[in-house]
């Protein structure tokens, strides 16, 4: 039997088994599906939509090329990617997964990146946004706002570590950029020329550009929502049939080797599949705080197979390979966990020992819980934003694809 036929049989058995499990556990599947829908409806959609739309407009008007020229002297020597990588990295950190992958794919389609450069870039621009780290994990799950500083520092420094590691990926670049260094004002003048040239070459009127940005962004978010719901159900089914516990026993030995509480094995497995539920389970265990922070950092860095499936779907429209991204997520998981271990005392214990009145408001444990307030605002306004955006999408899509054909 050929390997291709064996793969076909395995996939068929897996999908059939998952279908049967869902049929036999309708209530649990519905609850998991509703939970996934709630996460997408309340948080993911309203959080990512503005960034996606604005990113499309910035690309269309040439602002990204302008930023790319200015950041070229920084990004190319350090990470071996063009200057536009700086824009992708910043937007990825601000808006969270899978924005970095979407923008990298867009840059590749615009031919602003080679395939290898895109694979380097997507590997370290995948991150959770600050709102999720501070609001959901630190405040919502751990009920400890000051823990967000530690989690965010380990997470984003892990991103940096992956970027520095992946600069060695792919060998020598096939395209050597000539050095142009005439004067102090040269980079700015070149950037302005690129900005103007891109804006002039864009033939779509502003209304058409805005409509395209909205439609493209919402279509991507609908795909993301489907993956979130699917993996939420999949994770629940694995827990019901005890697969999670069985795999957890294997991981217990791995955690014991690193002197980490074995109680965290099941939350770790859950987090490998779905980041939100995994971190919630981590916070509910009786393990010591350092162990929980290290595992939470790993889960945040790895991103969960749900997010990775979203990224794989986005990259499928390009020639960017998924394998380097997957390896980078494992690397970042270990980097972030190790950094959390190193920074636990200076960024958490030492700050806890100080008088809170001597600290900035953002670091005060007993101060205004800005993250909690912001998180609650998103939870309450998110469904309204999502509903309004979907209605706008239906109107725009209908106007362009239905009414145009009828007329």
UniProtKB/TrEMBL annotation:
<feature type="transmembrane region" description="Helical">
    <location>
        <begin position="209"/>
        <end position="231"/>
    </location>
</feature>
<feature type="transmembrane region" description="Helical">
    <location>
        <begin position="294"/>
        <end position="314"/>
    </location>
</feature>
<feature type="transmembrane region" description="Helical">
    <location>
        <begin position="121"/>
        <end position="142"/>
    </location>
</feature>
<keyword id="KW-0472">Membrane</keyword>
<feature type="transmembrane region" description="Helical">
    <location>
        <begin position="373"/>
        <end position="396"/>
    </location>
</feature>
<feature type="domain" description="Nucleoside transporter/FeoB GTPase Gate">
    <location>
        <begin position="43"/>
        <end position="141"/>
    </location>
</feature>
<feature type="transmembrane region" description="Helical">
    <location>
        <begin position="79"/>
        <end position="100"/>
    </location>
</feature>
<dbReference type="InterPro" id="IPR011642">
    <property type="entry name" value="Gate_dom"/>
</dbReference>
<dbReference type="InterPro" id="IPR014226">
    <property type="entry name" value="Spore_IM_YlbJ"/>
</dbReference>
<protein>
    <submittedName>
        <fullName>Sporulation integral membrane protein YlbJ</fullName>
    </submittedName>
</protein>
<feature type="transmembrane region" description="Helical">
    <location>
        <begin position="326"/>
        <end position="344"/>
    </location>
</feature>
<keyword id="KW-0812">Transmembrane</keyword>
<feature type="transmembrane region" description="Helical">
    <location>
        <begin position="237"/>
        <end position="257"/>
    </location>
</feature>
<dbReference type="Pfam" id="PF07670">
    <property type="entry name" value="Gate"/>
</dbReference>
<feature type="transmembrane region" description="Helical">
    <location>
        <begin position="148"/>
        <end position="170"/>
    </location>
</feature>
<feature type="transmembrane region" description="Helical">
    <location>
        <begin position="44"/>
        <end position="67"/>
    </location>
</feature>
<feature type="transmembrane region" description="Helical">
    <location>
        <begin position="6"/>
        <end position="24"/>
    </location>
</feature>
<keyword id="KW-1133">Transmembrane helix</keyword>
